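Lab notebook page, bench 4
Experiment: in silico fold of construct C2
Operator: M.H.
Input chain length: 184 residues
Purpose: comparison with the prior construct
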Amino acid sequence: MLKKQTVWLLTMLSLMIVLSVYYVTSPSGGDFAYVDDGNNETEQASSSDKASEDEAKVNDISNKGEDQLFTMIRMEIQNERSKVKDRLDNVVASSSASIQEKNEARSKMNQLDEYTSKEAILEKSIIASKDYKDVLVRYDEDKVLVHVKAGKKLSETEVVNIMQKVYDEFGDIPVRVDRQPVEG
């Protein structure tokens, strides 16, 4: 129980810090009005509700806070995965759960850790390959979403290279690559 509270506290503290930095560095004096300015080149999500919510966050927030946007989305994903892992941990610790249920819970926990690790590896690899401003990789059920913050439109070669890196980590899975423009 103490571990859950510590994770929650650290997550909230991190979110506070990110929002404080955004507030201090925002050119409009800290107004928190987010507007879709139409500059992003992402397509609408047509799958699960979770993906739709995350896509909406990426699409609806103006580019002025994008450095913080990717960080906030990463923190939100981490927080959701922590909640899922806590529930799975409760199944493993439960005296009423069968051995099969406990093994399935452990397997799902390991899978979540594996996805998180692969996402981080891909983000670093993609940034290093072309020196992009930022990259956000998200595994979502049966697909991988890659958001690249780049100054100009991604070439077909760049998109293919990014997709190949994803295939190398996750195997044969649908991949969507979107560009988030860099303001400045």
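Observations: The chain has one domain: 2-27+47-181. The beta strands are 134-140, 143-150, 175-181.
Next step: discuss at group meeting.
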